[in-house]
Amino acid sequence: MPSHSEIRLKGGMSMKILSHPGTCHCGRCKCDNLEGNGLIHGKYCECDDRECIDEETGLMCTGHGMCYCGDCYCEAGWHGDKCELQCDIAPWEIKKKCTSPSGKICSNRGTCVCGECICHDVDPTGDWGDIHGDTCECDERNCKAAYDRYSDDFCSGHGQCNCGRCDCKTGWTGKKCEHPTSCPISPEESLRKCQGDSHLPCSGRGKCECGRCTCFPPGESKIYGKLCECDDRQCEDNDGNVCN
Q: Per the count of CB atoms within 10 A, which of 64, 164, 179, 189 is most buried?
């Protein structure tokens, strides 16, 4: 079986690249299946379904699952990398153990494996480890503010995130502890002042506090304006040249 390496993609995801999976012909990949028996496929020949074959039985996913791009997706009652392990509890009990208080399997944020939820630890935005709980019911991403792409702070840095809800420190309030209690205007009025015509507070480039925007990242002179609406980085090409 050919060796492979792993590369990182945007958002923290990764994919396997085979060392010599195929050749490029007229802008399209032709996968090398002399030894792959037709099991090497994909737009970039990135899928090797031979990885799903159980060595002991010689069957794809041990006959208890479906293979998709080199990974086995097991039938109910089976688990393991190649669906080689059978659960010792009844299907109804498996479902019961994985059902969240909201009635969803692993809160729609994980996979039920033999009565245990394996939470999806990464999402397309690249957040890691933010989903947890026996049934993946806690989503810490709900505690992040609109500007969190510039900050790792939960609850705007003014509170503690508990199972996706912010418990604010004294002097702060709001869904994400973004509003000081000393502010003379309401959280709703503060948000309205920071939004303007944009659907995001501070145009998605800053932090709203008591109706005023602080543009992020701090010290970035290319992002400015009352609502952080100006972003001169949009004028740069890939080499950093401005309007060139």
A: 179
CA distance 47 to 26: 21
pLDDT tens by residue, the chain, 244 residues: 444 444 443 344 444 444 446 888 888 888 887 766 778 888 888 889 999 999 888 999 999 999 999 999 888 788 888 999 888 888 888 899 999 988 999 999 888 888 889 888 755 555 556 888 999 999 888 888 655 455 567 888 899 999 989 999 999 998 889 899 999 999 999 989 998 777 888 888 888 889 999 888 766 678 889 999 888 888 866 666 667 6
pTM over 0.70: no
Q: Is 239 helix (H, G, I), strand (E, B) or coil?
A: coil
Can you spell out the DSSP letters for 121-179? -B-TT--BS-EESTTS-EEGGGG--TTGGG---SGGGSEEEETTEEEEPTTEESTTS-E
3-state secondary structure of 88: coil
Is the previous residue joined to 218 through a cis bond, with omega within 30 degrees of 0?
A: no
CATH class of 184-243: mainly beta
3-state secondary structure of 105: strand
